[in-house]
Amino acid sequence: MRETVIPAPLQVVDVVKTYRQGESIVNALRGVSLTVQSGEFIAIMGASGSGKSTLLHAIAGLTEIDGGRVLIAGQDLAELSDVPLTRFRQRHLGLVFQSFNLIPSLTAEDNIRLPASGGVGLDQQVEGLLERLGIAARRSHKPGALSGGEQQRIAIARALICNPDILLADEPTGSLDSVTGQQICQLLRELCDEQQRTIVIVTHEPHVAMWADRVVVLKDGLNQAEFRTDGLHDPQAVATNYQDSLQALEVS
Ligand SMILES: Nc1ncnc2c1ncn2[C@@H]1O[C@H](COP(=O)(O)OP(=O)(O)OP(=O)(O)O)[C@@H](O)[C@H]1O
Ligand SMILES: [Mg+2]
């Protein structure tokens, strides 16, 4: 009997992305490879401009890559045309952008409901997320009347409403106070541990990265360093490991 091999939820293979604007060329990703398993939580750290957001956009199939492959549950995104890609993304991925991307004319609650197509249990799920993320009292407000941190939590709820296999989040706690930030991290950790979701977040904060299993360090569009964080739960250790990784990359 042949063994069935289940592909990893996320495989990034030698991805290259080059931005061209007139004469200027930016090599944003220069060959990034990464495999993330089911139930694994990884944090991507790196200086501003190191390619973190570009990598997240490439994983989400939101930017065309110039080389390499992105496979979600074994499916190469490049093999899907626009409409199937959008459907595939809706089925598998939850996205939290650095700039939230909420619809200004919709209330907080309607923004959260937007990606969901209805169905049994949706109301309960919306309620659960509103409560869990501490935004129930703001449900009828439009994004313009919400603080940055509230908008961020709406964006997180919207990304989770379809129960994605993979959550991609660009600095999901960047606008939050430290207590709320830690609550969000705890929620993400539980999604991995209890529901075997796969989570990839970008962060500058060791307090956030310490919740991950693994930190991938991006420098100048390459990920040549990473370290494990499991069980450490120690922001200082994460900060030291991160600085050590950067220094090692500097001399190599
Ligand atoms: N649309 C674009 N056109 C041209 N260059 C771009 C574009 N988007 C990003 N870049 C460049 O690509 C590089 C990587 O950008 P990216 O946004 O991925 O960095 P980042 O690591 O997310 O930074 P930050 O921490 O500031 O968010 C940068 O040099 C940036 O200026
Ligand atoms: Mg960015």
Topology, pairings included?
Blueprint: E1 10-21, E2 24-36, E3 41-45, H1 52-59, E4 67-72, E5 75-76, H2 82-92, E6 93-96, H3 108-113, H4 122-132, H5 148-160, E7 166-170, H6 178-195, E8 198-202, H7 206-209, E9 214-219, E10 222-228, H8 235-251
Parallel strand pairs: 3-8, 3-9, 6-7, 7-8
Antiparallel strand pairs: 1-2, 1-4, 4-5, 9-10
Bound molecules: adenosine-5'-triphosphate and magnesium ion.
List keywords for this structure.
252 residues; alpha/beta; Rossmann fold; six-stranded mixed beta sheet; 8 helices; 10 strands; 35% helix; binds adenosine-5'-triphosphate; binds magnesium ion
Summarize the structure.
InterPro entries: AAA+_ATPase (IPR003593), ABC_transporter-like_ATP-bd (IPR003439), ABC_transporter-like_CS (IPR017871), ABC_transpr_LolD-like (IPR015854), MacB-like_ATP-bd (IPR017911), P-loop_NTPase (IPR027417). The protein is an alpha/beta fold and 252 residues long. It is built from eight helices and ten strands.
Describe the structure.
- There is one protein chain.
- The protein is an alpha/beta fold and 252 residues long.
- It has one domain: Rossmann fold, CATH 3.40.50.
- The protein contains eight helices and ten strands.
- The chain has helices spanning 52-59, 82-92, 108-113, 122-132, 148-160, 178-195, 206-209, 235-251; strands at residues 10-21, 24-36, 41-45, 67-72, 75-76, 93-96, 166-170, 198-202, 214-219, 222-228.
- A six-stranded mixed sheet has the order 6-7-8-3-9-10, with helices on both faces.
- The protein is globular and about 55 Å long.
- The termini are far apart.
- The mean pLDDT is 93.
- Adenosine-5'-triphosphate (ATP) is lined by residues 19, 21, 26, 28, 46, 48-54.
